[in-house]
Amino acid sequence: MALLILATVFVGFARTYYLAGVFHAPLPSLIIHLHGAAFSCWILLLVTQTSLVSAGRVDIHRRLGIAGFLLACLMVILGVLAATDSLVREAGPPGGDPKFFYIVPLTDMLVFGTLVFFAFRARSNPPAHKRLILVARLH
Asked: Is there a contact between 11 and 105 (Cβ–Cβ < 8 Å)?
């Protein structure tokens, strides 16, 4: 599942982010680049964490998980800043009202942050922790 998510993210954002230079699609601002970099690290962390658990290295998984929680907190801040930047630039889905669309990323950040918080609290319950993290990553 982690590799499928990684591939989906890459394909979905290749044209506008990962391969933007190839497609001459410059990023609109620094905050969008920071947002993309942090969220990319989050997906790479998913692959790393699932690999560590599969290899039986739960000790490293737990230590890296603390850094992951801090990254998730940073992602919420960057997500709100990126959404606000898009609102200021009046960017959004084609044909849509940017002010109306603004609630979508803000709600995403609220749900994501809540799921990560509960996943952090459920560290001692591996099945619950795993499911909460997976749902948070898909959000």
From this structure: no
Q: Which residue has the tokens 């959004």?
A: 92
Of 57, 73, 87, the residue nearest 116 (C-alpha): 73
Tokens for 111? Answer: 């749900």
Q: What are 31-77's pLDDT values in tens digits?
A: 988 999 999 999 999 999 999 999 999 999 999 999 999 999 999 99
Residue that the structure tokens 């993290």 belong to:
133
Query: Under a CB-based contact definition with an 8 Å cutoff, are residues 50 and 2 in contact?
Result: yes
Q: Which among 33, 27, 47 has a CA at the least distance from the CA of 81?
A: 33
- Chain mean position to CA 119: 15
Sorting pLDDT into bands at 50, 70 and 90, what band is 27? confident
- 8 A C-beta contact, residue 105 and residue 83: yes
Q: What is the pLDDT of residue 20?
A: 78
